[in-house]
Structure formats: C-alpha cells, structure tokens
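Researcher: Sequence recovery benchmark, item below. Answer with residues only.
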C-alpha cells in the first residue's frame, strides 16, 4: 500500500519540476518577448473545410494557432531538439484516412539521431481542437 502512494508522490513531484510539461499558454508567434526564436509553419489540415493552422515553438512549448485566432498548447518539448531538427520537427499526414491531417511533433531522437519518435495529434472537427492519441506514437528511421 505504501509503494503506490510513494510512486504517486514521486511522479507528481517530477511532473511539477519538468518545465517542458507545464500547462502554460505562451504568447502568439509574433511575440518578441520569447527567448527562443519563433518560426511559424502554416499547415493545411483539411482542404474541403479550408482548415489551416499555424504551428510554432515558443521556448519549450509547441503551440497551434487556428485560423480563427484561437491558440492551443499541444505539448512540451525538450528545447534542445528544436534547433537541430527544425526541418523535420513537424510532420503532417492523414494516416487514419478521415480527411483531416494529423500533426506529428518530434518527441525524441535516438543516440546518433538514427531514429526519430513523434507524438501524433488528431484534429477533432466537432470540438475544433487537436487531441493527442498515444496509440499513434511512432518512431521512424531518418
């Protein structure tokens, strides 16, 4: 009985100490107060409904800004990954063939960067926001 309680306390402590996972909403991509240079990437999520988003990194957070101006925090990241892997940091694909592209965000790389692992976020049309689906997490070689 004591071990699950201790593990819960340790997990809560580690979560609170990890700045990349804090639930913060940074400013828009045009903000000049950020320490990390902000490069915004425009992505087409659905051509039929003309849904576009802008995805960008602010410090240690990946943000999505919808065309109507609403912002959503997707995930925290290791900020050291972004400068070296900026060209492959975001991917879009429609793996489930629902007509909406998913956004894949680089979550980590193997030693030597031979494999890259991605978190996948699906667009929920009814809610108008992205949702992470853990079962779609994947790794790929270069």
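Model:
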């Amino acid at each position: 009985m004591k071990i699950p309680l201790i593990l819960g306390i340790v997990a809560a402590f580690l979560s609170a100490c990890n700045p990349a996972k804090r639930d913060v909403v940074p400013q828009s991509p045009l903000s000049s107060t950020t320490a990390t240079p902000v490069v915004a990437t425009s992505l087409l999520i659905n051509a039929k409904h003309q849904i576009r988003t802008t995805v960008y990194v602010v410090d240690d957070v990946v943000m999505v800004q919808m065309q109507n101006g609403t912002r959503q925090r997707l995930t925290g990241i290791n900020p050291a990954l972004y400068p070296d892997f900026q060209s492959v940091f975001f991917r879009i694909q429609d793996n489930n063939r629902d007509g909406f592209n998913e956004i894949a965000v680089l979550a980590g790389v193997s030693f030597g960067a031979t494999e890259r692992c991605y978190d996948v976020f699906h667009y929920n049309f009814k809610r108008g926001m992205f949702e992470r689906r853990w079962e779609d997490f994947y790794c790929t070689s270069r």
